[in-house]
């Protein structure tokens, strides 16, 4: 694929784990990498940045092949033009903000005065509304966590990397600092057409920042596509969970989906499906009504579950299900969002048996990934 | 957009611990007894020196030719050995902390040997290696006409041998604490390993390097066993202060005490110089 900013096919084996993925990014594209812990996201970033050496495969950044195991090419990290912004800011504690941001350009041989001018304008850019000259003189210990992460972003951008790797850049921030940092990332990464790979756990981050989503599980890509498409029509339980949706796997049938234990989940299919094909039924937790006794009447889908956890979420409460003693495993993790008042009225504790009901019109059936 | 969301805007200064209002929660009362005894074990002998000292003769004793020569030799050789420890032990610590090849654990155990070995044994080992009939010594003598034992060079070698582990151990600890994350970041910013070492690694481990250097220097100053075995006791060439103290003790107690006090003063200066952040542990 010519013209790609990133084209990589890598395989890395270690005891109990193997990473085997092909991933690419067009110039200016932001690709989000989603995946549960241990799915290989960090390993992938390590391989791309050159800190890890894969067992086979190749990595091309821009026009340059930086890794080609067969040809024996392995460009060291500092000559790849691949930047990294991690969870922690990791600003060099013995340098001022200015020296931190100027570090990359200085390493590239740019004269001190020019490097510092570039650094100062980047600092002004990532810390709008603050005195850039004054901030530039501060040491990391004299800045808040959010400010440190902003300066770390400026530092990662300063050498003008061909590819920027963002490793959960918002995960370690205070809740209060996250939205502003997210919109800053949107401005300086997505709007500025900086090619980037974003590892995240958050559907919101992916929606705001990424053009495309790749879902990793156990070292393999299980799902990928345009962000909105993937997150609204998840095909794997993990993606559904990230997207905040409920997902039931099974096979397509006339009225919706039949699970492997024979339960019928009524729903509407958005695309034509052949009976018996692998499929998933997807619905929003907010579409689920919760009852203490089996609901009578209209809802076509009523599922008997055991309440596993109660998770407060602002104005609503998320009730997380687990299978009852004799129930099927796919009930595990299904969520229902109810108002605080409704939760109080139910007056239940984890372990109680409940009924989750969802109208057929709220259930979308999609072809499954596998 | 503003960034006042999460900001303590004023630079937070390092907050001093307010000890006046704190209560001890982890110090059982009985512990004071052994603690005081331990302190006395260290402090009383030094105080004894002060009491026993012949203060009237002090200037004369300290300015004797042998004393001045020994002090000078001690400071010079300790400085030279410390520099050697930094130049050689620094990279060794880096290899031990950052290297990825197998066998490093064995290597580390060998490096620790001088810490547990009696210095006399170290001196003997050096003598048999670099001595006139030693493996390296013979080659040096035949090849270059150089003999090392019983020279100032031998003093420096003996001190380097016993002091090296102090520098390596504290520096390796500092390197491990600092971790490789900053270095990985520097690499992704385009810094070569050499630049990363100079601009990131060294500044980060500077406190550890300082305390290691001070420890090594102090160890060199106090070195006795390996020196007397390998370098002998020749005034002006190999007779360092500890050796002179030992020699004087047989003939002139007052002189030995005066020189001992001189070593105590040097030691206190070394600690005072190094202490502020290095030997008080991590806060």
Automatic annotation (TrEMBL), chain A:
Record-linked InterPro entries: AAA+_ATPase (IPR003593), ABC_transporter-like_ATP-bd (IPR003439), ABC_transporter-like_CS (IPR017871), Mo/tungstate-bd_C_term_dom (IPR008995), Molybdenum_import_ModC (IPR050334), Mop_domain (IPR004606), P-loop_NTPase (IPR027417), Transp-assoc_OB_typ1 (IPR005116)
UniProt keyword annotations, A-Z: ATP-binding, Cell membrane, Membrane, Molybdenum, Nucleotide-binding, Translocase, Transport
GO biological process terms held by the UniProt record: molybdate ion transport
One Pfam family cited in the UniProt record for this chain: ABC_tran
Residues annotated as signal peptide: none
Domain Mop as annotated: residue spans: 296-367
Record SMART domains: AAA
GO MF, one annotated term: ATP binding
Domain ABC transporter: 1-243
Domain of life: Bacteria
Keyword Cell membrane: yes
Cross-referenced PANTHER family: ABC TRANSPORTER I FAMILY MEMBER 10 (PTHR43514), SULFATE_THIOSULFATE IMPORT ATP-BINDING PROTEIN CYSA (PTHR43514:SF1)
Protein name, UniProt field: ABC transporter ATP-binding protein
Taxonomic placement: Bacteria, Bacillati, Actinomycetota, Actinomycetes, Pseudonocardiales
This protein's encoding gene: modC
TrEMBL record, chain B:
Membrane topology: Multi-pass membrane protein
Subcellular location per the Swiss-Prot or TrEMBL entry: Cell membrane
Pfam hit, one: BPD_transp_1
Transmembrane helix in keyword set: yes
UniProt superkingdom: Bacteria
All residue ranges annotated as the ABC transmembrane type-1 domain in the record: 71-274
Molecular functions (GO terms): molybdate ion transmembrane transporter activity
Transmembrane regions: 30-51, 78-97, 109-130, 150-171, 204-234, 254-274
Function, as annotated: Part of the binding-protein-dependent transport system for molybdenum; probably responsible for the translocation of the substrate across the membrane.
Family: Belongs to the binding-protein-dependent transport system permease family. CysTW subfamily.
Name the UniProt record assigns to this protein: Molybdenum transport system permease
Lineage: Bacteria, Bacillati, Actinomycetota, Actinomycetes, Pseudonocardiales
